[in-house]
Amino acid sequence: MLTHFASSSVARERERVARHIERAERAAMAQDVSSLSRLQRMVRSLLLRELAQYRRDARFPQNRGFAEPTPYFVDAEGTRCAMAHLLEVGGETELVARVARERNNAWVRELADEPRLIAWLAGRLERRRGRRDPAELLRHELVVRVRRRLVRAGELPGARARRARGRRHR
């Protein structure tokens, strides 16, 4: 059982992380996205909604191994940091597992040399000759996954109604 001091320390850390994520959300929302395609804007919007839900849920990794503030990509209980959570929602389970295994306590800026992470953040992959753009397929899959999560959470009530209408017409 946590002592009062320990529980208030955990609560303060949870509030600090939530404020940090909220600042990141505000900064992201202030960015000009006019150069993005419709699909890119939709994926971005869905990810920002997912990030806001992650912040509201306030289930953040716990630093139990260091006296000073130290990031955990995935903590001992399996709780993902915001970046790991969004990557996993986007289908990057293998990348999340690898970073957690090899660089679990790295700050995001220290992950700038992770090519797959950079490609995911940039939202594009190399085009392959004669095939659909793999990045486009990845983004489509991300849209589908995030929409499903939002519908299940009741965040997209219109989608739930459309789904119900579709069942009646079968």
Automatic annotation (TrEMBL):
This is Uncharacterized protein. It comes from the Bacteria. It comes from Sandaracinus amylolyticus.
